[in-house]
């Protein structure tokens, strides 16, 4: 499973690499831009914490709904063409969120989630097909690109709203501008021909992906790391404010958390692709989460939650990039990688969708973040177990 050195950065591949990077730039800002604005949205609209949490739950439900459909569409019409369709859907959804109508915000959020789901599912297959000997490097590259603009969106949401005197609708809608260069750079890929049916999996093998215990372990790891990521992206600013930080500082810490994740977002996939198994990486990620959560349980100086934020950033960078890398490492072919990606991101994100909404409901019920933090610890423990199993050196299907 080690990557082989070869001359692979041809002009044609370089265009594709830039296209992948700019597509990846757009796969998180529509979601991470919401968290710092949750308080403003709640005050402006009068909605509950549960309803506010739904703004980050809807994209996850869209992920779950469209993820199983994307691989089949990609195989029939071409993965590159369906990725472009996903970008168009994402752009339309973000623009719709700029409307000063609350139902439009929810509909646009769901549309944006659908567009993101398509990119999430098909990029691992594109990488496996076009860069089969460089899965780790390419996964690290596009994961780092995702995290970079996820962080930028978190940090810029409040400045766009307050500093530029934009209301929260326009702040959310402004991220449609980032889609434009991605749409232009991906145009050359539309000439790529779809896979022939002979290159794909048989119907029997497609079904057997869903019967593979290893595929379910990869799915569980993907879902639980996503559960923690989206809960923290949505509610960490509110948790930090409950610890005494002002809203602006909490928003910037959310951004810093994601910037901290950048190095591991790149290096973990490269390292994982060179190791015979990934159990040690899973152990380190889980330990970072546990120590970080411990800092939020302790009522101490303000430095404690700041340290927790930094540890969360490291853990998230490692967990997200490893989960995406496993989609390629545990599959023998590009078609298998797309099928595993669709399965993992469908059930995984359905599991993750429970997070932001239920966390908001728990706070509404108990007026404390402590119950949610306890749930996060339990989720981390189960994530550790599933990651250890998913990290074993084997494939989801026999040869």
Automatic annotation (TrEMBL):
| UniProt GO molecular function | transmembrane transporter activity
Q: How does it sit in the membrane?
A: Multi-pass membrane protein
Q: Which domain of life is it from?
A: Bacteria
Record's keyword terms, sorted = Membrane, Transmembrane, Transmembrane helix, Transport
Q: Where is it located?
A: Cell membrane
Listed SUPFAM superfamilies: MFS general substrate transporter
List residues traversing the bilayer: 12-31, 51-70, 82-99, 105-123, 135-156, 168-187, 214-237, 249-273, 280-298, 304-327, 347-363, 369-388
Query: Per its record, how is this protein called by name?
Result: MFS transporter, CP family, cyanate transporter
Q: Which organism is it from?
A: Salibacterium qingdaonense
